[in-house]
Design brief:
The protein has 119 residues and is of the alpha/beta class. It contains three helices and ten strands; from the N terminus they run E-E-E-E-E-E-H-E-E-H-E-H-E. The longest helix is centred in the last third of the chain and has 18 residues.
Amino acid sequence: MIEEYSFGLIKINGKTYHYDVIVLWTGEVLEWWRKESHLIDVEDVKSSVNLNPDTIIIGIGESGVAKVTEKAKEYIKEKGIKLIVNKTEEAVKNFNVISKNSEEKRKQNQAIGLFHLTC
């Protein structure tokens, strides 16, 4: 599903994006805006949590500069959603593996990826 990631760029299903994105298990891509550029808090993940996925994967940038608050982590986990937080390159790999395994097992893991593309 995600074909390429490099600093400031992500290519998904043949389309290139130069801004932070939310990727749904369906392949839909949404623009991702946060209240504070490098701080990911409850408000920044709420719309994804409300979709009730099995897993949320957060890419915190190429160098891992973005931080996920403890409140946001707790909020996600309280809803029974598995959380994976990694630098964006690794988060993209995680998302692709989960998506591929879901296809192979014919049971879709409803994963959502939130990817910060820079820093």
